[in-house]
Amino acid sequence: MAKRKACDFTLMISVILLVFIGIIMVFSSSWPDGLYKMQDGYHFLKKQLVASILGLIAMIVFMNFDYWKLGKLSKLIFFGATILCLLIFTPLGREYNGARRWVDLGVINFMPSDAMKLGSIIFLSAFLAKRKEKMQSFKEGFIPAMMVIGFSCGLIILQKDLGTSATLAFTLVIIFFIGGAKISHLSTVGITGFIMLTLAILQPFTPAGERYRIKRVTTFLDPFADRVGSGWQVVQSLYALGSGGIFGLGLGKSRQKFFYIPEPYNDFIFSIIGEELGFIGCLTVMLLLLLVVWRGIKIALGAKDLFGCLLASGIVSLITIQALIHIAVVTSSMPATGIPLPFISYGGTSLMIYMAAAGVLLNISRHSQLDRS
């Protein structure tokens, strides 16, 4: 039996450091909400610690679980993720902030969309790896792949989560492109996707008073025009980043987390990092994320088979796109949407899924041709 190779040490340390920073920042940014809503300032910290421990276990398990076995189990994994998404439309589904995205099993609440992200990446990677000779065919390559992508994203769109569905769509299309799709076919996808995204934002068949997405776009164009209304969240985020300066106000000394930014420990945690740790803190987080992306790309390029290459590429793409969207929203570089920062934002399901995905990357690195130092 061949000796097992070492995993990518740089990737592993980068992920662990990001999770550690996340735990600290979730505690700092959630203290006021914890005291006010839960009468316990440690409430969100304790839940994040539990998720981190479970995520670490998942990362270690997948780091030692040969990734090619995931290809054999891809149909079962995708089926399981689909069932979890459909549970939202049963009595187990729970609505929060006007959107039905959670499943309540009594002892645990989770977001099935996070499971669908990883499940669809695994399934599409295995699907394309088996059809690599047919990827140039419109009928046998393009149509089946787009059905998988459309089905996966459609289940999330039904949950009224345009941000997550767009993130997943971009990720799966990147996998399809790397898998050998024709540029002409992808151009059709791009045009169709742009039209559908525009319609989703304009919401032409929705009553004028309920078209919240177009409101987000107009707010993005000038958030200060309605700074106490629709632009409140973005304006407060910019205040947080601006007041942090180079070195920040100091850990725990954020002012905007005191009910100026709603749930600052989740979709706007990067603004609290900027306020408390300053430009240096933001740069540190971004550099660690870049390390993860860089090592992931190296792992994908060095993978010994197409499935490993596509799987690694999909995981890296998901992390990259979600991190870019989160930072862009916080800095008012794009319209607001609820996207957590990978490995850092509060959220047990998201953290565990991303740490499990990192474990898969680490396992692929054990079979890749690369420098593991």
TrEMBL record:
Subcellular location: Cell membrane
Keywords for the protein's UniProt record, in alphabetical order: Cell membrane, Cell shape, Membrane, Transmembrane, Transmembrane helix
Superkingdom to which the source organism belongs: Bacteria
GO CC annotation, single: plasma membrane
Bilayer disposition of the protein: Multi-pass membrane protein
GO molecular function: lipid-linked peptidoglycan transporter activity
Entry keyword annotation includes Cell membrane: yes
InterPro entries to which the protein is assigned, alphabetical: FtsW (IPR013437), FtsW/RodA (IPR001182)
GO biological process: cell division; peptidoglycan biosynthetic process; regulation of cell shape
Keyword Endoplasmic reticulum set for record: no
Transmembrane region(s): 9-29, 49-67, 76-93, 105-129, 141-158, 164-181, 188-206, 268-294, 306-331, 343-364
NCBIfam families: ftsW
Name under which the protein is recorded: Stage V sporulation protein E
Originating organism: Gottschalkia purinilytica
Taxonomic path: Bacteria, Bacillati, Bacillota, Tissierellia, Tissierellales
Gene: spoVE
